[in-house]
Automatic annotation (TrEMBL):
GO terms for molecular function: hydrolase activity. Residues 545-706, 807-959 form the CBM3 domain. Residues 715-803 form the Fibronectin type-III domain. The keyword Thylakoid does not apply. The lineage of its organism: Bacteria, Bacillati, Bacillota, Bacilli, Bacillales. It holds the Pfam family Glyco_hydro_9. SUPFAM superfamilies: Carbohydrate-binding domain, Fibronectin type III, Six-hairpin glycosidases. It comes from Paenibacillus farraposensis. Gene3D superfamilies: 1.50.10.10, Endoglucanase-like (2.60.40.710), Immunoglobulins (2.60.40.10). Keywords: Carbohydrate metabolism, Glycosidase, Hydrolase, Polysaccharide degradation, Signal. This is Glycoside hydrolase family 9 protein.
Length: 959
């Protein structure tokens, strides 16, 4: 997407009587006149309408996409749901709002006290993943307008439900982005998420885009940073949605309308143009305010909204928004642009013309623009007026090379609306001629709607990351798109009917949500005029051809009588939807029968590593284990290569050498030709079914020598062993190992062993009881499955301690695990402070600490989900300890404000429900956390959470 230029129109002084009388409006009931358009339909408008909606499924952002209409799209940009404000435990402000503004409006911006705002949902702008303001709200309003005018087309073609789903995805996002105070006044409106300059350095699926590497700030309209153009466009979209939903969901329609009114008042009060980081710069806001006003009038019948547009002074000079383009009632205006993301005058006057059909000026402004677009096929009423848009040699109206088809489609929508209300079929016929050109009746010989009528008969290389599916951040790799971007309208031809169907060409082949906005409505209008009886496709979209998502390639680098040097490339080519994997492994099988025949053994074989791409990328090496015997007597063995410690998408190279020693007579006997995984290997990389690939221990590709399909791998050594002291007990925890079915916990009283196995468990935690306090114990853990047992983990030590006695009358801190899953992406400690003393204790004197391990030094967010004392009366901060402790390198500290009150004698605080998550929503491993205890599902005194009074520890044991 690039900035485009606004062309305002031709301003002329009319030598006619003042227009004051004409501009005195009266809303006249106006019935749509069915247009009797001539000419049979060459193309299936029902099918094209159906496909055009699926483009919006490809553009969705947020949660709830996985499992939807397109199998290759999944949830993305989840960080948009918690953009930090720099308050309530978050350290960074990733918005354009000032700290003073945020602190002054915390109750509105952060009512749940989690220090962040949720601006998730909405749609990607184009092939990129930014949610830009004007295109988002323009598209929402224009799609809604087309649906409002031609709803019967959606019903008759079975697309009504799908269309409403897309419209609601827009309106839900706009509602979520609107922050109002208790009186209903808008305090802030989010209109952009992401940064175009940063985002445009990425070219790949949105599901794989790392928000840490490509941060997504949120941009808000406020009284400090006004953006009346953005807020007004959103008001228009929500007003239209209220009309579309009033008979289906009156409550939702009312919510949309109330927010539309509030956003309009907010825009009127705080005038100023929003920021777009230079990508979608707005020229002014009068058109946007007019667009909102005309639809608010349509929704409310409040004439004040119309007066905002066309108000005049005693001298006949316009004082309303129209003064931007027309000086006085003695003047006129001719629009030589079109309804578009930056200029919505075309839509404004078309709507005004249909609302007030007896007003000749509104009709003139709307009609003249359509006549202009026709290139003279529809003549102006004034025969001396020869101002028309120059047409291409083949008769296509191209007002700009950049996105010519999107502007043309928007003009078609306006023409079809005008035809609906006036009964003039010439405008509908012109729209049909232009749509047929877009659909393939053009010199290039193919359709500019991707996938229509078929992928082979349409543009094939839209400028779109997700559909292209590059794994290498490269627009030219792969050469062909992985997915069909069904229904997307590409930029289109230039004024010479020439188009360039190349992925890198964003002028000719850009796709964007505003491109399809006019297209959808125009297709609906054309269906009603020309396509009655046409049918959409059944069972659409078709399932994509299944391919191997996981496999390995091999390439022979060099070989001689002593060694084989091989590059093994493991692949994760998941596309339904794309995702990282953390449990991948491969095996390389070989035979030493020739060594056995020469009196040698497996001890004469070694493996050397020459290149590890995973280590180069992430610093985490591939885990190599083996050799393991398949049939020792026959000499069949394998090495296993394990990528389980790092997320993997795409491919990773691993180059190694198998080396055989010479025998006692200094002779070499290495013969790789009998090696299973050597079968078919050449000096060119090729997929090998003889190198099986495993995902979480299950074979997902390739063949083993014995033909087995499910063969477990010996699990790797458990990592990050941690020990936590208790009263006469110790908690031992570790990270789970891929493919492990059990773990052996081993203990010693001397560092380094010998160790005795004290338990075999299935989970990654164990509580060792019956210990002697003040005695140090040493632990290791191994992982096992049917293939064997790993080596021991690194050693951990712990010294149990007696619990600090709670004095009679002292405070006690009770704990409950609100989430017992130790491995998910958030944890939920809950607390209750009990006062068994004889005097009240002010809560402002108390602080709680919950001790845990971050498991990756990443920004985190604290949330108070509910508290009997009120979440607004407490605060939480997440503190990293200066030095790591057993089971803790951080703690959550909860403090209470002055308004929290006191705990009465014999009373308690009641429940305090909290929640912590990482900002990138990666998982924790709570199993080793000092304060975590999944067995405590009801409030219980727990000495691993600590309570302080005026800074002094009064309950619990610190780690």
């Amino acid at each position: 997407m690039k900035t485009s230029k606004r062309f305002l129109g031709v301003f002329r002084t009319c030598g006619v009587a003042a227009l004051a009388t004409a501009m005195t409006l009266s809303s006249v009931s106006f019935l749509a006149v069915p247009a009797k358009a001539a000419g049979a339909a060459k193309y299936n408008y029902a099918e094209a309408l159906q496909k055009s909606l699926y483009f919006y499924d490809a553009e969705k952002s947020g949660q709830g996409i996985t499992g939807g209409h397109l199998e290759w799209r999944g949830d993305s940009e989840l960080s948009d749901s918690h953009i930090p404000l720099g308050i309530n435990g978050t350290t960074t402000n990733m918005t354009n709002m000032s700290a003073n503004f945020i602190n002054s409006n915390k109750a509105v911006l952060d009512p749940d006290g989690n220090g962040s705002v949720d601006v998730s949902g909405g749609f990607h702008d184009a092939g990129d993943h930014v949610k830009f303001g004007l295109p988002q709200s323009y598209t929402a309003s224009t799609l809604g307008w087309g649906f409002y005018e031609f709803r019967d087309a959606f019903r008759q073609t079975g697309q009504e439900e799908h269309m409403l789903e897309e419209l609601k995805w827009f309106s839900d996002y706009l509602l979520r982005s609107t922050f109002r105070d208790s009186s209903g006044k808008v305090i802030a409106f989010n209109y952009m998420v992401g940064n175009g300059t940063v985002d445009h350095t990425y070219w790949g699926p949105p599901e794989l885009q790392d928000s840490a590497k490509y941060p997504r700030p949120a941009t808000f309209a406020t009284a400090e940073t006004p953006a009346s153009d953005q807020a007004a466009e959103a008001a228009a979209a929500l007003a239209i949605m209220s009309l579309n939903m009033k008979n289906d969901d009156a409550e939702y329609a009312s919510t949309c309308l109330e927010n539309a009114k509030a956003l309009y008042r907010f825009a009127q009060t705080n005038r100023g143009l929003g920021n777009s980081d230079g990508f979608y710069n707005s020229s002014f806001d009068e058109d946007d305010l007019s667009w909102a006003a005309v639809w608010l009038y349509a929704a409310t019948s409040d004439m004040n909204y119309i007066h905002d547009i066309n108000a005049t002074g005693p001298d006949g000079m316009y004082t309303g928004y129209m003064k931007k383009i027309i000086r006085s009632t003695s003047d006129s205006w001719q629009n030589i642009w079109v309804h578009s993301w930056d200029t919505v005058w075309g839509g404004v006057f078309m709507k005004l013309a249909t609302l007030f059909p007896d007003n000749p000026d509104f009709d003139y402004f709307a009609r003249w623009n359509l006549e202009y677009w026709s290139g003279g096929k529809i003549q102006h009423k004034d025969p001396s007026d020869k101002t028309y848009l120059k047409q291409s040699p083949d008769g296509f109206g191209a007002i700009s090379t950049w996105g010519s088809a999107r502007y043309n489609a928007a003009a078609q929508l306006c023409a079809l609306v005008y035809s609906k209300y006036t009964g003039r079929t010439d405008f509908a016929d012109w729209a049909k001629s232009q749509m047929d050109y877009i659909m393939g009746d053009n010199p290039m010989g193919y359709s500019y709607i991707v996938g229509f009528p078929t992928p082979q008969q349409s543009a094939k290389h839209p400028h779109h990351r997700a559909a292209h599916g590059s794994k290498t951040n490269n627009m030219t790799t792969p050469a062909e798109h992985r997915h069909v971007l069904w229904g997307a309208l590409v930029g289109g031809p230039d004024s010479d009917d020439v188009h360039n169907d190349v992925t890198t060409d964003y002028v000719y082949n850009e796709v964007a949500i505003d491109y399809n906005a006019g297209l959808v409505g125009a297709l609906a209008g054309l269906y009603l005029q020309y396509g009655q009886g046409q049918q959409p496709l059944a069972d659409f979209p078709p399932k994509e051809e299944k391919t191997d998502e996981y496999y390995a390639e091999t390439k022979l680098e060099q070989e001689n009588a002593e060694r084989s040097q091989v590059t093994l490339t493991v692949h994760n080519e998941s596309v339904h939807p794309p995702h990282f994997e953390t449990g991948m492994a491969a095996r390389y099988y070989f035979s030493i029968s020739e060594l056995l025949a020469a009196g040698q053994s497996i001890n004469d074989v070694s493996l050397e590593i020459y290149y590890d791409e995973q280590k180069t990328i992430s610093g985490v090496p591939v885990k190599v284990t083996g050799p393991f015997a398949v049939d020792a007597a026959a000499g069949t063995y394998y090495y296993q290569f394990d990528w389980a410690d790092s997320p993997l998408y795409g491919d990773r190279d691993f180059q190694f050498g198998l080396i055989a020693k010479q025998d006692r007579n200094y002779k070499s006997h290495w013969d790789p030709t009998n090696d299973w995984s050597h079968t078919g290997i050449t000096s060119r990389a090729a997929i090998s079914p003889y190198v099986p690939v495993y995902l979480n221990g299950v074979k997902v590709y390739g063949n083993e020598p014995d033909g087995g399909s499910r063969s477990p791998i010996v699990p790797p050594v458990p990592k990050d062993l941690k020990t936590t002291a208790g009263n006469a007990q110790a908690t031992v925890s570790w990270n789970t190992s891929s493919w492990a079915t059990s773990y052996s916990v081993k203990r010693a009283t001397t560092s380094g062993g010998p160790y005795t196995t004290i338990a075999t468990v299935a989970s990654a935690t164990y509580v060792d009881t019956g210990l002697t306090n003040d005695t140090t114990y040493y632990y290791v853990v191994s992982a096992a499955n049917s293939a064997g047992e790993s080596e021991n983990s690194d050693q951990g030590s712990v010294t149990p301690q007696a619990t600090v006695d709670v004095k009679p009358g002292a405070l006690a801190l009770q704990y409950r695990a609100g989430d017992t899953n130790a491995g998910d992406n958030q944890f939920k400690p809950q607390f209750n402070i009990v006062n068994t003393g004889s005097t009240a204790v002010p809560l402002s004197e108390l602080t709680i600490r919950y001790w845990y391990t971050i498991d990756g030094d990443k920004p985190q967010t604290f949330n108070c989900d509910w508290a009997q004392v009120g979440c607004s009366n407490l605060s939480g901060k997440l503190v990293k300890t200066p030095t790591a402790k057993a089971g803790a390198d951080a703690y959550l500290e909860i403090a209470f404000g002055a308004n929290a009150g006191s705990i009465t004698a014999g009373g308690n605080t009641g429940e305090i429900q909290t929640r912590i998550n990482k900002n990138d929503w990666t998982n924790y491993n709570e199993a080793d956390d000092y304060s975590f205890d999944p067995t405590k599902t009801s409030f219980t005194n727990w000495d691993h959470v600590t309570l302080y009074q005026n800074g002094t520890l009064v309950w619990g044991i610190e780690p």
